[in-house]
DNA sequence: AACGGCGTTGTGTTTATCACAACAGTTTCC
DNA sequence: GGAAACTGTTGTGATAAACACAACGCCGTT
């Protein structure tokens, strides 16, 4: 009100100065790294255009990343690719077990509610790996083995993961050799697999009545963190018991996958 | 000389202003990420101490990393772990194929010189995977299959990788189940394996006369980039032919592994 | 209750970063 | 064949962004 306050020193400075304390230069470095999701190889100028940064800034960001081994400059083409430190960190992340610690309570809750065994599976090359397993109570139950790997085309849990991969990558991973058959229901040709994937993408859930292990019905939902497929959560049980509660299982497994994704995305 | 220049504004500014254009804030963010190699979980204060940074700086770095999914804050303990973006990047790196492109010429040169097939293997969970293979010329030769995986304890190439893993991690990966036997020479107990690893560490090379595939002799050397084990390069050939040139093979494979490591570290 | 630990937030100072420009090599395309 | 257009890299002043310090609120222990 007073006319005297001629120059309010900083009219908006009481509010948080920056976007909640995010460091611009560091954030830009991370943006550069994440750009390699879309393209395996970047030149300085084209990356600068993509991220709307100055050439010089991009060049210095890449040089900084290169010095720590996060990117690698091809001495011939002067283009950059992801470097060795990325793999090193990934191993550390796996070893650290964030995923396991976060997923276990979610699976336990899911298992309790549906009364069947639940598993978190993660992609592992051209296969998927059982990362966390929670067995149901009671004598008759499926028992997941942590660390076991199953080829990508085997079972609902695999469909719920690889349906959300870039499909050209899936084809590359599966290769040219014929796909292994586990019983008369296994999907062994690419066309059937592609149709199944389309259905899974549309419905957000994959259901298998014995495609891999003939004795069990599986209901699997994909789990996304930061819009990236991380793995799938699956409910597994004997056919007869599962038959009466497939609808419930679909709802619950979708919810659990969503919940885990939120937790892993930091919004939980 | 003049008494007047009280404050020389910048006494060395003609020289490159900073350490060759490395951005401090970005570099610090990368240091934070790499700290998770040594410990899976960090609090703000202890990480600040470790890196000799201010608490507030560390906190803002972690917040920046968290917003992009590179780290994840446990809402309970307020401690940070590596996040989902690390895995996403690792998949992109694998898909991108930097390793393959870099390794192929090195392997080709090695194969030409020794006159046998050569393979680059990379760790893949509790196994190792054939990432790049270059066959020798001639009718009698070992032919490596890209994508094939072999359990960690099978063959020289595995020893040359897992000897340089933290040994407690190797034990965890191998698990409690008995190790698969491929022939009478396969190393199937942990004690023998541990002794072999010690020898491999001391000599910088692993030699197998048919431990996995009974028909071939393998000479393998570990490959490091930025002081981290990346994989191993192996020379494989029939026993009789290899017998006459094991010493040469040891020298050559060591050199090739060193060369590849240098290339991947950006110093090539 | 007082302490010592934590993670978080505010703020003036200053310094690291930005944006623009200029440079030297390559490739491209008349 | 030559110049135009493209790379990636480096220099530099202005300025905004990051730093370092301090204060705060919170929790568990003493």
Description:
Chain A has about 270 residues and is α+β, with helices and mostly antiparallel strands. Helix content of chain A is about 45%, strand content about 20%. Chain A contains ten helices and eight strands. In chain A, strand 7 (about 215-225) and strand 8 form a beta hairpin. Chain A starts with about 25 loop residues before the first helix and ends with a helix. Chains A and B meet through helix 1, helix 3 and helix 4 of A and helix 1, helix 3 and helix 4 of B. The structure holds a DNA duplex (30 and 30 nucleotides).
Q: What's the short version?
A:
2 copies of one chain form a homodimer. With 268 residues, chain A is of the alpha+beta class. Chain A is built from 10 helices and 8 strands.
H and E order of chain A: HHHEEHHEEEHHHEEEHH
For the termini of chain A, the CA-CA separation is 44 Å
CATH class of the largest domain in chain A: Alpha Beta
How many domains of chain A? The number is 2
In the CATH hierarchy, the third-tier topology of the largest domain in chain A is known as Beta-Lactamase
Overall outline of chain A: globular
**Uncertain residue segments of chain A:** 1-14
What is the level-2 CATH architecture name of the largest domain in chain A?
2-Layer Sandwich
What multimeric state do the chains show? homodimer
Adjacency order of strands in the biggest sheet of chain A: 5-4-3-8-7-6
Q: How many H/I helices of chain A?
A: 10
Output the CATH homologous superfamily of the largest domain in chain A.
Answer: GAF domain
Mean pLDDT figure of chain A: 90
Q: Provide the structure class of chain A.
A: alpha+beta
Percentage of helical residues of chain A?
A: 40-55%
């Amino acid at each position: 009100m007073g006319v005297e306050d001629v120059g309010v020193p900083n009219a908006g400075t009481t509010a948080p100065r920056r976007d909640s304390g995010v460091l611009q230069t560091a954030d830009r470095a991370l943006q550069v790294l994440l750009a390699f999701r879309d393209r395996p190889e970047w030149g300085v100028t084209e990356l600068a255009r993509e991220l709307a940064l100055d050439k010089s800034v991009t060049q210095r960001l890449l040089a900084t990343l290169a010095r720590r081994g996060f990117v690698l400059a091809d001495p011939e083409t002067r283009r950059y690719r992801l470097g060795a430190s990325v793999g090193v960190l990934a191993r550390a992340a796996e070893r650290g077990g964030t995923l396991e610690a976060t997923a276990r309570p979610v699976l336990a809750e899911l298992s309790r509610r549906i009364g069947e065994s639940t598993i978190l599976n993660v992609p592992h090359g051209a296969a998927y790996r059982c990362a966390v397993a929670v067995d149901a109570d009671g004598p008759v139950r499926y028992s997941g083995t942590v660390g076991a790997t199953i080829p990508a085309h085997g079972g609902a849990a695999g469909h719920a993961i690889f349906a959300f991969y870039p499909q050209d990558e899936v084809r590359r991973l599966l290769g040219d050799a014929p796909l292994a058959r586990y019983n008369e229901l296994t999907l062994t040709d690419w066309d059937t697999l592609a149709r199944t994937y389309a259905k899974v993408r549309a419905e957000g859930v994959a259901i298998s009545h014995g495609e891999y292990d003939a004795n069990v019905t599986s209901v699997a939902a994909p789990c996304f963190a930061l819009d990236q497929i991380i793995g799938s959560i699956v409910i597994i049980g004997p056919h007869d018991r599962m038959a009466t509660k497939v609808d419930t299982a679909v709802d619950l497994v979708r919810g659990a996958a969503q919940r885990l994704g939120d937790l892993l995305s930091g919004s939980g």
